[in-house]
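Ticket opened by: R.M.
Priority: normal
Category: complex prediction / small molecule

The reporter submitted a protein together with magnesium ion and asked that the result be attached to this ticket for the collaborator who will pick it up next week. Submitted input follows.
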Amino acid sequence: MKLKDTEIEKIKNWIRILQKSLTLEFEAEFTNILGKEKYFNEFLYDSLKNISNFRLSEENTNDIKKFSLRYQEYNNLDIYQRKRLVIDTRKILFKLSKTIESSPISKTLSNKLISLNSDIQIINGVGKVLKDNLNQLGLFNLNDLIKYYPRTYLDYTNKEKIVNLRPNNLYTCSAYVKKFYIYKSKKNNNLSVMNIIVFDETSSIKITKFFLGRRFRSYSFFSSQKEKYKPGVKVAISGKVKTSEYGRAFVDPQIEIINDNNLMNFSGKILPIYSLSESISNFTFIKTLKKVLPFVIGYQDFLTENQLKKLSLFSLSEALKNIHFPNSQLCLAESKKRLLFDELLILQIKFLLKKNRRKLLLKSDFHLKRALLDNYLNALPFNLTKSQKNVLEEIKIDLSGQNPMSRLLQGDVGSGKTIIAIASLLYIVERGNQGAFMVPTEVLAEQHYQNLLNNLNPLFLNVELLTGNTSQKKRREIFRNLANGQVDILVGTHALFEEKVIFNSLGLVVIDEQHRFGVSQRNRLLKKGENSHLLSMTATPIPRTLALSIYGDLDASQITELPPGRKPVKTEIISEKNLKDLFLNVESEIIKRKQVYVVLPLIEESEKLNLNSANKVYEYLSKEVFKKFNVGLLHGKLNSIEKNEIIELFVKNKINILVSTTVIEVGINVPNASIMIIYNAERFGLSQLHQLRGRVGRDSYESYCYLVTDENNTSTNKRLEVLKKSNDGFFIAEKDLELRGPGQILGYKQSGLPDFVLDNLPNNKFLIDKAREEAKNILKEDPHLEKNLIIKQAITENLNNKYTHDFFN
Ligand code: ADP
Ligand code: MG
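Result attached by the on-call engineer:
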């Protein structure tokens, strides 16, 4: 069978994308990661099935199809089976790439001119073994290699002798190994600790490195490390020097073996360190890359000379060269800035295009028979705040317009977003369409559902609740009535994503606590309608920088005030031994008929983590401290009936103290609760604590939040102090971003952003505005990107996202 060049290219491309997703899943330790559109296993199932689109031998096709089927079962496999499957898939794809390459035609391909798409084998010195190893990393052509940016750098420009090292500074030293030992931590079952003593002609110093994860406790890992750091081996160490009672030490530095044969002259340079497999050394990789790098001239720059000047950015080729081999830290920062700009520019153009593209196809032949919205608002026991009114007006204009709304509604905890959600849903139902109200937890779904039932006349409105626990019978009924348009509003959890959920005319999707969902999930729900409106709500204010890079396709509204009469929650940081005194206060509050939340990081005791658990604290509080009162226990392992019972008892004040895990974090609304006690507060992120704290202070009564921690280090204190000082969710989120970095706050699952962007954005906040502005300029002059073909190509092919998590479309 003869394959055409273009066919071979297509297959290779197909293989490349698959290999990349396999690599990512591997790195994510087989957790079935979520891409833009699909979960890893769905993506593999679908893509592998597509093998039949290529003209390949029946044998090859059938082999691969078998693999496709196995991905259907992926969720049921344990981690070892998953690993096996991923490795086997890699192998078979690898084999396939070999067979198509050995066809005579592709040989002639490589005689053509070298381009960025040329196979790496074209490079002098890349033999079969190295090629195979690079392929394993998902690197096939020159472009792949150039866009494989370093994981980190060793800065040899600040080189020092050991004797001169001062604590709390960053240094690089070259030294020799004197002693090596590695052991399993006794305190933490997941941790290994490696110590190396190194020396130079001036002195010696200890290096300590921590390895977290079971695989680092194996005998083979220990012996491989021992082999690596034999006495006498020369190493370069780069990192921070700290002091402890045992003297100075490098703690968790970068360590690189300096091999005299590798002729590497580090001094005064910044050495790139790549994520590589055991079979390729950093040195080999650098050597290969140096041969490839001259081809950077093959990239066409997105930006013209003028734009570069205006934005004061490096040219693309300059940036690509310097991201690998920077001459200085400044040069490195500039290169990152330029590459980040490109990512952001493409992202913003995508967002703007997406915004322009959507058109509305909803039913509009409605007869406004049911005055649902006005009746609802009139029946409320209070007036909307000014801010709520403004937001609702904005939304109403959108909902009656020609283009589908895509709106992000931000408002601090307790600012009254639920009412806006319900009002919007009613407005769309009045117009003859259906609404979906999507929430992250069952408890919250139930609460919203009840809220709708209680406030509306069931004669005029049919609301249903769908969660993972809805019975089969009820489910069938709901599906039927959704499809024939009988159900007006469907409230539910992730269950709404199910394929069987088919709407008759889905007009509006409301997503509550939207930071709990991925971008792909929201799109999946939207696809159930034909260009439905979207209202996405969040109380975890997203710092502006991030908001623009993630939700650039959404318009934003904000509720800027809390309902009148609210008092800021008084927040204290206390240690566990002071709890006894606190419990006395709690008692007097309960006697005044007020209620209390007690939140814990775990359900059950864990040997590994020295933390308080909900079970234990529940026992303690119910049987010892608060025997006189009713104490309830709530956590994710209860079934939905049990959960609802507990919540209902709490709502009715039949439970005085609710001991809970973070299942109460989002949305729960029991305004009578006035005390929140959070154990092991150091374990939670700031925004999360702010959310938890938002469960109290929901009426005009004075309320309190106690952050309990026994950790007494400056960073914990600094973090918790932020909460004590501020009640402003935006301020807290910005601090959280500063202290923990965006990756921690959003994780790529939510953000869908490339790591490269996540890592570099905080230091380049201003770039996002520039990119947005430039994207607007470009689209204004060239709305269909007919002149900016390279940009168009980057968008369609995701070329610029080579190792982003963008591989699912
Ligand atoms: P969140 O924005 O955190 O979702 P909720 O929608 O749960 O907040 O509202 C918090 C509480 O404030 C609820 O008890 C709600 O009834 C009440 N509320 C909402 N809007 C107003 C208002 N305009 N005036 C007084 N209370 C309000
Ligand atoms: Mg809410």
